[in-house]
């Protein structure tokens, strides 16, 4: 395996699957299968999931919600998704635990870096929910932060597209895919890989980000075997 310990960032929107809202049971099962497969191969996995399938603070603010409250609602949405994934992993016989950035036992255990690392070393999947615990930060930033804190070798950003393009491939047929690109180039070209806070955190702490299509079954294992898939941002 190319990486020993990873931080897997999953998109909340992708959890909607074909139904267009909430959590698609089939998509959840697919994710759990892929994660279980790499855990069996000895990879240590920490996970951060977005909450966009349930509520997104930024779009809530645009619709008149107070941004502070909207972001808190978004954080709770990530907890719901994390519990769903933990349940799907449990059904596959994969040991996992949900940690939360905000105290809410018995829903999840309050996140602490030493406990998270201890669980990873014991072979448990650690799902870290609640974002950073603060408003005005995205789950991308939370992923970067948790990846650095837990000593991940890479942040794997599972999305609906198969990498980073020069423009949105869903809108622009002339968009060109990059196999590899630097954080500086991402910034200069104004590419929407992650928000700037997350990008800066990864760059300053030397955490590479690999963007790939998580919705295509088998892709996660391909990434870990070092097969050519997605885009490496370094």
How would you sum up this structure, described in words?
- With 234 residues, the protein is an alpha/beta fold.
- The chain has one domain (5-233): Acetylglutamate kinase-like (Carbamate kinase), CATH 3.40.1160.
- Helices cover 38% and strands 19% of the residues.
- A nine-stranded mixed beta sheet has the order 4-3-5-2-1-6-10-11-9, sandwiched between helices. It has a two-stranded antiparallel sheet with strand order 7-8.
- β1, α1 (25-40) and β2 (44-49) form a beta-alpha-beta unit.
- α1 packs across α3.
- The longest helix is centred in the middle third of the chain and has 25 residues, at 67-91.
- The mean pLDDT is 95.
Approximate strand percentage? 15-25%
Mean pLDDT: 95
Number of domains as seen in the coordinates: 1
How much helicity do the residues have? 25-40%
Question: H/E element string?
Answer: EHEHHEEHEHEEEEHHEHE
The dominant shape is: globular
- What is the CATH first-level class name? Alpha Beta
Q: What can be said about the biggest beta sheet?
A: 9 strands, mixed
Can you say what the CATH homologous superfamily is? Acetylglutamate kinase-like
């Amino acid at each position: 395996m190319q990486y020993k310990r990873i931080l897997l960032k999953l998109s909340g929107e992708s959890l909607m699957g074909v139904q267009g809202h909430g959590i698609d049971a089939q998509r959840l099962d697919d994710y759990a299968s892929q994660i279980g497969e790499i855990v069996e191969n000895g990879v240590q996995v920490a996970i951060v999931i977005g909450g966009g399938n349930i509520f997104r603070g930024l779009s809530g603010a645009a619709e008149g919600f107070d941004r502070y409250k909207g972001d808190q609602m978004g954080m709770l949405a990530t907890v719901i998704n994390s519990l769903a994934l933990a349940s799907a992993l449990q059904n596959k016989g994969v040991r996992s635990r949900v940690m939360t950035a905000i105290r809410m036992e018995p829903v999840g255990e309050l996140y602490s870096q030493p406990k998270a690392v201890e669980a990873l070393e014991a072979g448990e999947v650690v799902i870290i929910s609640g974002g950073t615990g603060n408003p005005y930060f995205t789950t991308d930033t939370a992923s970067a932060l948790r990846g650095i804190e837990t000593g991940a070798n890479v942040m794997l950003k599972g999305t609906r597209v198969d990498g980073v393009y020069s423009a949105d491939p869903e809108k622009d047929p002339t968009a060109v895919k990059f196999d590899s690109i630097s954080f500086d180039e991402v910034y200069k070209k104004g590419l929407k890989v992650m928000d700037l806070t997350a990008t800066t955190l990864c760059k300053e702490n030397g955490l590479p980000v690999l963007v790939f299509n998580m919705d295509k079954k088998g892709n996660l294992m391909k990434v870990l075997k070092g097969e050519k898939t997605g885009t490496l941002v370094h």
